[in-house]
Design brief:
Two copies of one chain form a homodimer.
Chain A (H helix, E strand, L loop, with lengths): L11 E2 L15 H13 L19 H13 L8 E3 L5 H14 L3 E4 L10 H15 L6 E5 L1 H4 L5 H10 L4 E6 L4 H11 L4 E4 L5 H6 L4 E2 L8 H8 L5 H15 L6 H13 L16 H14 L7
Parallel strand pairs in A: 1-7, 2-3, 3-4, 4-5, 5-6
Helix pairs in contact in A: 2-3, 3-4, 4-6, 11-12
Chain lengths: ~300, ~300
């Protein structure tokens, strides 16, 4: 329906990138670029730096801009980068968004401001309006980001509908990371004709694909992008779907705060590189015992990067 | 018990400053400085910019540093400023803390990183250790900030005890803004001998003063600092305590998200200056109808800036 070619939402798997760190907990550009180049070579449509899985709000504006610049310098096409520009202070969101636009990134993924809680829809709408009106650039493609179990501020249907009405060419997608299939299906039913709905929870991908979703920003795609892609492309065998479900079940047995450290643990095991274990506080890196357990578990699940 | 004179925690009322904004929603330095100078002249021990009441995390590092610089340039003694340096990204906290130290501020008030939820105590401790170890400056006076109903990440007794043991001269106070008297009393019983406990909820001040608290970072002190001081100094009449309780009851009838806009509304009424009504999204400014209601209510309560 949207005939503005600039506004076309993305297709394929755009991994929710984990962010590798150096010993001083600064971003490790070398590992980060190598990781992304491998994902692009594996067929990913693009990549999504600095979402929740990437500990995005744990990094400053300068750190995030420098890491995106490093990806482009390493040869990642800018148009294959969807930058998560979420921050508590709107001028920080603005600075990150302007940088993404200047870089030629595909688009931006934006949370509502997440410090103050229980704010009314009007305030959430005002926040997006502040950003979009100040940027005032028709090249901006914005994806609304809904992850209430972490951000504690979510996006109601009223917020989404209002923003789409106000900015029909700017609002191109919704990332629904609530991990609740009924919520995702209701979003798809309400908005898929006008705004592309994407889910982050991989077991829900086939259901959403049937409803018109064309891709995913996925955490598991950091190490099994082809498998995740099969779920979206509707050519996944029952065995493939069952494997993804087993990986998610394995992760669901962890405390929620251990999810990102465990995903980094899987990377450490697959790359044989304990540097991947580092996280920035308030996260806590996997202990050696937990890593050993994880090694056993992924052996059972049978993650195989070359195939997956 | 702490014989390091640098580490003495504050005494008196240090208002949790509201942050006045210009029409473009940038910080209005002129109104901000005038507000602070009046509070200092009214006898406040100092002031606390950029806490929750001051919408602190809604402003960038640069905005916050410039506003503190403006206060000092306007003649506010730096040692009478307690800077809230909370931010989601630890290097931003570090930059704000270094600036506060370079300015000669009294100290810093710091939340744990607040984007990721349900994090373990170990991660919260790691966050404070990251900051204190990197700053590595014995002049640093740190106040731990507990406001779980907003930050969604709180400070357990274990976190406080561990940090005090690791950094006995740096950790000088706890700001408890949970607004739960039983919680505040338990904190005082556990820690007051070694770490000064302050509460933000004014009706609890007399109880805490009896247990050794020596001041408050108070929202109501933006416009009734003498009244709030009387509650701490234990010379408040029953009538004074009842007045403060009536103001809090009035505010408690609002939705929680309307508290900061209403406090700014009271400033707008007292200063006859609608510029005070502005808030940064995701907050929403008081509507004219709500402001008219508030005018009636504070008339009944009888707020009188010259006396209060």
């Amino acid at each position: 329906l949207n005939t503005n070619p600039v506004a076309m939402p993305f297709v394929g798997i755009w991994p929710a990138l984990l962010t590798p760190l150096k010993a001083d907990l600064s971003i490790d550009h070398r590992r980060f670029c190598a990781h992304v180049l491998r994902l692009v070579e594996a067929g990913c449509g693009g990549v999504t730096p600095f979402g929740t899985t990437g500990e995005g709000p744990s990094f400053t504006v300068d750190e995030r801009r420098a890491a995106v610049d490093a990806l482009v310098a390493a040869g990642v096409p800018a148009e294959r980068i969807l930058v998560s520009t979420s921050a508590a202070a709107l001028p920080d969101v603005e600075a990150l968004t302007r940088h993404a636009l200047a870089t030629g990134a595909h688009g931006c993924l934006m949370l509502p401001p997440f410090y103050l809680k229980g704010v009314p829809d009007e305030g959430v709408i005002d926040a997006y309006r502040y950003l979009i009106d100040r940027i005032a650039d028709e090249r901006l493609r914005l994806y609304l980001y809904h992850i209430p179990q972490v951000a504690a501020v979510g996006l109601s249907h009223h917020v989404i509908a209002t923003l789409k009405r106000l900015y029909p060419h700017t609002i191109v997608g919704i990332k629904d990371s609530q991990c609740d299939r009924a919520h995702s299906v209701a979003l798809a039913d309400a908005f898929m004709r006008d705004v592309r709905v994407y889910v982050g929870f991989e077991p829900d991908l086939p259901e959403l694909a049937r409803r018109g979703s064309t891709g995913a920003v996925s955490g598991l795609a950091n190490f099994m992008p082809r498998v995740v892609h099969a779920l979206v492309a509707e050519h996944a065998s029952a065995a493939t779907a069952a494997r993804v479900a087993r990986v998610r079940d394995l992760l669901a047995r962890l405390e929620p705060y251990a999810l990102i450290p465990a995903l980094k643990g899987i990377m450490a095991l697959l790359d044989d590189d304990t540097g991947w274990l580092r996280v920035r506080p308030p996260l806590v890196a996997l202990e050696p015992g937990a890593l050993a357990e994880l090694r056993q578990s992924i052996g059972v699940v049978g993650i195989d990067r070359a195939q997956d």
